[in-house]
Amino acid sequence: CFNSGSSWDKCDFETNLCKALPEFSLHPGWIRRNGQSGMGPPYSDHHGNGSAYFLSLSSEMQSSSAALRTNVFLPTDEERICQIRFHYWVSQMSGTLMVGLQKHSEDTVANIWQVSGELRNQWNVNTITINSTEKYEVIFWGMVETQRQGETVAIDDITFSEGC
Question: What PANTHER family does the record tag this protein with (predicted)?
Answer without folding.
Answer: APICAL ENDOSOMAL GLYCOPROTEIN PRECURSOR, MAM DOMAIN-CONTAINING PROTEIN
